[in-house]
Write a structure and sequence with these properties.
The chain has helices spanning 16-22, 41-51, 57-73, 129-135, 149-157, 176-187, 196-201, 210-222, 292-302, 322-331, 337-340, 357-363, 382-413, 416-422, 433-440, 443-447, 455-473, 482-501; strands at 4-7, 24-27, 79-84, 89-95, 100-101, 111-122, 141-144, 192-195, 225-228, 239-244, 285-287, 306-310, 316-321, 346-348, 365-369, 376-381. By secondary structure, the protein is an alpha+beta fold. It has three domains: 4-157, ph1033 like fold; 275-381, Roll (CBS-domain), CATH 3.10.580; 385-501, no CATH class. It is built from 18 helices and 16 strands. The protein is flat and about 100 Å long. It comes from Amycolatopsis mongoliensis. Keywords: CBS domain. InterPro entries: CBS_dom (IPR000644), CBS_dom_sf (IPR046342).
Length: 503
């Protein structure tokens, strides 16, 4: 089956004219010798490491993948799309032969595939929005496979309209927003910044889980984009900048090497106040000039213990509660709402939750302010805390018990030099769940535990516990799914049984 590829002619289109004039698709990497000497992808990686020793493993792997596709996976008859940077158009051609090396060409024009160019003046608007999104990849060599890309590009090459693609259940182009994102990153006109929470929402995710992280990380990489700092390691409301991966040597003076850590690998966590608010926060208020009876009526009708009091502009002015009303009536026979208004602490929706617990417990409640730092968006009571933490206490308790038992047995049985290889620097020599997975994937290391368990079954339990633990650490207020709680209980029971029998 015919495939379609995008082959970029340099970050600034420096290979455009030679590619069109010579009938070629040309890759960069001027420092790399003829690819014919590399029989495997691993051999190509080794060659790239020799050519670019300063580059990270991540970037070397990314470059090896692009060159291997250009060298071995691209076939005669495949279609090639080349962005023409200087005129903001595209050319489409058909591959007519095998890869060859051009030693007499300029360094960045030596790796080539012969191409018969079919059209050289295609306006971006001839492609559907989703296809334009795929063509926004910043990689030099990229397979275009999503949404029947090859068939649609063939139609455009023949001068016919892009027939488009739409999922049967979709009522809105699923890639339109992300296509705009790729275009903004490529243009580089202004830094592209957004919070981790907003980034995930582009893919329809509300939480940073193993699945959401792998999905987003993979599609970012597919488009030659990464985030700075890595979106997998910072708080959900931290702003990250989307930047191009080092697409080829010398493409830019500040090419970020992406982190080598596996996405979602036992991330440190901070729980935010917003996590305990409803999905659509709202708060009932009363204006300070209204009668006290209006507040009493509203509190009785809604079964509220307190109300926020605002000024005429809608901004926080205090709170009224049954306690403050009682005190006001003791002090004055006919008190007003202002007489019964007292001051209660107001916190921000993105404050760390744990830092507010003492205030919530001593006062009974606090009001929560939104992103504008002025408007109230919710209330957190001691009952909210008790309900939320009660819901989460059991899975955390079970995971902690299992981890402590696993840590104790590991310290007894596994040499320290092996533990040092899998324990992060901040963990004081203690592996995280991800570290335990990497350690015990080796059957010899697993046998050191001397636990009468099946290696594969134990590893599956450990990986599942790790996934659930990471989901919990990115707490969003969601109840722990029953199947996850059952998995944690099973893992803990297994570790507890063999730990006791090994004493």
């Amino acid at each position: 089956m015919k495939s379609a590829w995008q082959v970029r002619a340099g970050r600034h289109g420096e290979r455009d004219q030679e590619s069109l004039a010579e009938g070629l698709a040309i890759a960069g990497w001027g420092g790399v010798p003829a690819l014919g000497r590399f029989d495997t992808r691993e051999a190509l990686k080794a060659g790239l490491r020799e050519c670019y020793p300063q580059r990270s493993t991540y970037v070397i792997g990314n470059w090896a993948g692009q060159l291997w596709r250009f060298y071995r996976e691209m076939n005669e008859g495949d279609l090639v799309v080349m962005p023409l940077k200087n005129v903001r158009q595209f050319a489409i051609g058909e591959v007519t032969g095998a890869y060859h090396y051009r030693p007499g060409a300029s360094p960045d024009c030596r790796h080539a595939r012969p191409v018969r160019w079919l059209r050289r003046d295609i306006d971006p608007g001839e492609f559907g929005a989703d296809l334009r999104g795929s063509l926004g990849s910043l990689l030099t060599v990229c397979r275009l496979s999503r949404h029947e890309a090859a068939r649609r590009i063939g139609e455009v090459a023949a001068g016919r309209p892009d027939p488009g693609w739409r999922h049967a259940s979709a009522n809105l182009d699923p890639d339109a927003t992300r296509a705009d994102l790729w275009e903004a990153v490529e243009s580089g006109a202004v830094p592209v910044q957004l919070t981790v929470r907003n980034l995930l929402s582009l893919w329809g995710y509300r939480r940073r889980t193993a699945t959401s992280q792998v999905t987003v990380h993979s599609e970012l990489a597919e488009h030659g984009v990464t985030t700075r700092p890595p979106f997998t390691t910072v708080r959900m409301d931290t702003a990250v900048e989307l930047v191009p991966i080092a697409v080829e040597p010398g493409a830019t003076d500040s090419e970020p090497d992406s982190p080598e850590a596996e996405p979602g690998d036992d991330l440190p966590a901070k729980w935010m106040v917003r996590a305990i608010l409803p999905e659509k926060p709202a708060i009932e208020t009363i204006t300070a000039g209204e009668p006290l009876a209006a507040a009493v009526t509203l509190m009785l009708a809604k079964d509220y213990s307190q109300l926020a009091v605002t000024d005429d502009d809608g901004f926080y002015a205090g709170a009224v509660s049954w306690e403050s009303i009682g005190r006001a009536r003791l002090a004055k026979p006919e008190p007003t709402l202002r007489d019964a208004t007292t001051q209660v602490r107001v916190i921000d929706f993105d404050d760390e939750l744990f830092g507010q617990i003492d205030e919530i417990c001593s006062r009974g409640y606090v009001f929560v302010r939104g992103g504008d730092r002025r408007t109230l968006v919710g209330i957190v009571t001691a009952n909210d805390l008790a309900r939320q933490f009660g819901m989460l206490a059991r899975p955390f308790s079970l995971l902690e018990e299992a981890e402590l038992r696993l840590r104790r047995q590991t310290k007894r049985c596994v040499p320290e030099d092996l533990l040092d290889k899998v324990a992060p620097q901040w963990a004081n020599g203690n592996p995280t769940f991800g570290g335990y997975v990497r350690l015990f994937e080796d059957l010899h290391h697993f046998d050191m535990l001397k636990w009468p368990l099946d290696h594969g079954a134990f590893l599956d339990l450990l990986k599942e516990a790790r996934r659930i633990r990471n989901d919990l650490m990115h707490f969003s207020g969601d109840e722990v799914p029953k199947q996850d709680l059952a998995a944690i209980e099973g893992f803990c029971a297994t570790i507890k049984a063999v730990d006791q029998s090994s004493r």
